[in-house]
Structures are given as C-alpha cells and as structure tokens.
Amino acid sequence: MSLFDLTGKTAIVTGACGLIGRKHCEALANAGANVVVADLNAEACAAVAAELPGGIHLPLAVNVTDPASLAAARDQILAQFGHIDVLVNNAAINDMFENPALAADLSKFENFPLATFQQVLEVNVTGVFLAAQVFGTPMARQGHGSIINVASTYGLVGPDQSIYRNEAGEQTFYKSPSYPMTKGAVVNFTRYLAAYWGKDGVRVNTLSPGGVENSQDEFFIKQYSAKTPLGRMATPTDYQGAVVFLASDASAYMTGANLVVDGGWTAI
Fold first, then answer.
1. Can you give the pTM of this predicted structure?
2. Which residues span the membrane (predicted)?
3. Among 154, 164, 174, 179, which one carries the catalytic annotation?
C-alpha cells in the first residue's frame, strides 16, 4: 500500500467545491497529501478544507481562466509548502440552462448560443491549459509531478440524445456541442503534455469519468443506467481510487494515458 501513499505531497484540486471535486480532495487527504482546495468562492473552499482529514490543507479562491489569479495561488502554495506534486485539473462547466422551458430549444446544435459555447471553452480548455502551465512548470523544474486532467466519456464518444427524452417521448434537453468538444480537447492535450514533460519527470494522464447520479429526473437515471453494463450511474465516491492511483507512485510508469472509469458505458 506504500505505493499509494501521498504523505508530504502537495496536491492541488481545481473546481474543488463541486460534487466530485470535494471527493477528489477527500481521497487525496486520506492518502496523506496536503490538499490545496481551489475554487472561485473563498468561503466554500474554506468549508471544504475544514472537513478534510489530517494534513495541512489550504483553501484558495482561484479563477482558472485568469493567469494572475493562478500565479498568485502558485506563489502562495510554494511559499507555504515549498513544492507542488499533484494537480487535478477538475474545474469545468457542464451544460446548464436556467430556464427548463427553453433548455430543449437552446441546447440544440442549430440554436446553441455562441456566448455559452465560448464560456465553456474558456473554462474547460483554456482553464486546463493555464492551470497546467502555471502549476506544472514548478513540477518540471523540480523533476517530478503528476497532472490529472479530468475529461469525460463524452470526450470519447458522441452523446446519445435519446436518454434525455422523457416517458412521453419529449426531448427535454440535448447534450450540447460544447461539453463533448472541450472534453475531447482535454484528452489530446494530456497526450501533448505527457510527451512534452516526460523528460522532466512530470506524468500527465486523463481521468474520464461517467455520469454521476445527482438528483436527475428518474427517467434519465433509468435510461442512463440501462446503457451501462454495471447497471447504474456513478456515485460521487467512485472516482476516489482512480485519483489516488494516478497521483501516486502506483502509476509511476503511466503517462499520456486515459483512465476511463464509466461503469462500462464506452465499452458497448
């Protein structure tokens, strides 16, 4: 089990206050890491950090689309811990429309708003690029580190729009183009970084999770689960083992890979 030990390591999680981000932080803390809880809201970060076991955990308000915000965070982390060992690039925007009555129409490719597309691109791609650049550079200088870019099954396969159709046959929503497009970019950006920083001892891998059950409509949960060999959606804790594996020496000879944890969704 020593292969999975992260004692003394400094691990940064972006988007740390979200449903899955909190569990990434918890998993890394349980493995012994000092966790930097990074998200937009300082109070939310402090609340998450206060709940983590062991270690010295640092809450930081960080905007992954702002180079100055990231640089200030990097400087504060290095001043406190002296090194950065793990980055989990988890911050992302998923498809959301405030008015459910308009969701089916606005989420169609033909109607998808350019401003929404650009916002998702900025966080899901530019944010991953910038965080890797700012936090990964000290890793390369010190000669070791692990970057985990969180993508999605929809970065690998096209969305099945039928699972968003309710019992009456009405299309309540379309999985829009921005999320799959940006997550596909993350997968190949991982390969780029793995090839670029391999000589410097920085490993870069993708974690591609499947859908997490989180109070969605019952028809959606049922239809998603029916397409999954394990017969269910993920729970928020289902990715904890994968994160610790990729962060630790247990995956020491693994870089440029895409670890798909989706209950078998992409296997069929």
1. 0.96
2. none
3. 179
